[in-house]
Write a structure and sequence with these properties.
13% helix, elongated
């Protein structure tokens, strides 16, 4: 190598080292996106880069794309930096971005990466909480994100402050569906747990599906519990409309309804039908077997993440879930006197483990009894002793299986029970005591008759003697 060539190479190396050293001494620029880095498909977004005040030229680079774009900083944004705008976000703009700025001493270091994500490229997954979206304070829950599109990964995002996100690879099911299970621990009511999930394919990790429907974890508190009731009563026929009402004397702004074993947690804004009372209606009809189960409701305030204590449980029983129709009879009869002993007999020829007796319009839960096999029937005897006027009403009975205590057979024919307050009129109802009283009354009447007869004859004797 000639001396002149060696000198040129050393000079070039020296200049290059000085340039790199100068770039390292320049402040690193800041890159960000407005309104954010996760943008729905077709929405606008602006990417900003901010360096020193004397930087007139900026360079934006998207990883894996063609050579970087150069932008001259407009005078009106000289203090804020440079930007470029995307009028319609698509998957072509999704990816990792860097920016640099040019100073009199050369190009700066690269900014930290900015990951731009587009959502809505695939159908939304479903998000559910296992075993329930109702979580005790400090407890844990597993969130399940599922898709039928065979997505390779899922992202779970929590709204509000502090924002959080988790990413997991998908697990494949036997029919091509995929899912991810996110364990979430130490759920507290200190902030609102509003959660969504997205899915993506492995080769395009910044191209997400549409967001799942939002799921709010409910952390019960200790404030006054509401009441849960239904105007139709706890037993409803399959196909019938059903509305549950959550009421409270606390002025709650919103109510939530939970069903044991179900991931859904419907909410409804509170209304005030009268002073001092708040209420929300939850229409659930037409009823199917999935509506059978145990329900509770909760009250909450819009400005608070904490919910009330749960209401007392309400069991909803769906009749007509299988074809059995039991029979209902009464002993000694459908018309009885107050104080008598009455037995309602529910029978079925089918193998049934339990029978249920329901009174029309009753607020209390129906009665349940284990069945017994007698005389070719499975049956249960519901005893009422002694009966009062409160037992007046229409009764029906149902059969059910212990495998699902909320699904009932068809209803028996209605039985009307009438309780009378009058004295008994059956001959067998006259006791020995009653007979003694009747005998004594007869003796008194007989004595009075004899005495009256004697008085009449005593006055007639002297008158007859004077005439003679």
């Amino acid at each position: 190598m000639t001396p002149s060539l060696t000198a040129l190479l050393c000079l070039g190396l020296s200049v290059g080292l000085r340039t790199q050293e100068q770039a390292r001494t320049l402040p690193k620029p800041t890159i960000w996106a407005e309104p954010g880095s996760v943008i729905p498909w077709g929405s606008p977004v602006t990417i900003w880069c901010q360096g020193t005040r004397v930087a007139p030229v900026f360079r934006f680079h998207k990883e894996g794309s063609s050579p970087p774009w150069y932008r001259q900083a407009p005078l009106e944004h000289a203090d804020k930096g440079n930007f470029f705008s995307i009028s319609h976000m698509t998957q072509d703009y999704a990816g990792r971005y860097h920016c640099y700025y040019l100073s009199p001493t050369g190009w700066s270091e690269s900014s930290d990466p900015l990951e731009m994500v587009v959502t809505g490229a695939h159908s939304k997954p479903t998000l559910s909480a296992l075993p329930s979206p109702v979580v005790t304070s400090g407890g844990t829950v597993t969130l399940q994100c599922r898709s039928r599109q065979g997505l390779d990964g899922f992202i779970l995002t929590k709204e509000g402050e502090p924002k959080s996100s988790w990413t997991l690879d998908a697990q494949r099911g036997p029919q091509g569906q995929t899912q991810a299970l996110f364990p979430v621990g130490r759920v507290t009511p200190s902030h609102r747990w509003m959660i969504r999930c997205h899915g993506f394919y492995r080769d395009t990790p910044q191209v997400w599906s549409a967001p799942s429907d939002p799921l709010e974890l409910l952390v019960p508190g200790v404030s006054g519990k509401p009441s849960l009731l239904t105007p139709q009563g706890p037993v409803v026929a399959s196909g019938q409309s059903l509305t549950l009402q959550c009421r409270s004397d606390v002025g709650y702004d919103r109510f939530a309804l939970s069903q044991e074993g179900r991931p859904a947690l419907p909410q409804s804004p509170g209304r005030q039908p009268q002073a001092g009372l708040s209420q929300a209606d939850f229409p659930l009809g037409p009823v199917t077997n999935t509506h059978a189960g145990r329900y509770r409701c909760y009250g909450g305030h819009n400005l608070s993440s904490e919910w009330s204590a749960p209401s007392d449980p309400l069991d909803i029983l769906v009749a007509g879930s299988f074809p059995d129709t039991p029979s209902l009879s009464v002993q000694p009869g459908p018309v009885v006197a107050s104080g008598e002993n009455v037995t309602l007999l529910c029978q079925s020829r089918s193998t049934r483990e339990t029978f249920l007796l329901s009174k029309e319009g009753a607020a209390q839960s129906p009665l349940r009894l284990r069945s017994k096999y007698r005389g070719g029937h499975f049956q249960a005897e519901f005893s009422m002793s002694p009966v009062t006027s409160a037992h007046n009403g229409t009764y029906r009975c149902y059969s059910l299986l212990s495998s699902n205590p909320y699904l009932l057979s068809h209803a028996s024919a209605p039985l009307e029970l009438a309780v009378s307050e009058s004295l008994p009129s059956h001959p067998q109802d006259y006791t020995v005591e009653n007979l003694i009283r009747m005998g004594m009354a007869g003796s008194v009447l007989l004595g009075l008759g004899i005495l009256l007869f004697q008085v009449q004859h005593g006055h007639g004797g002297p008158q007859d003697a004077a005439r003679s």
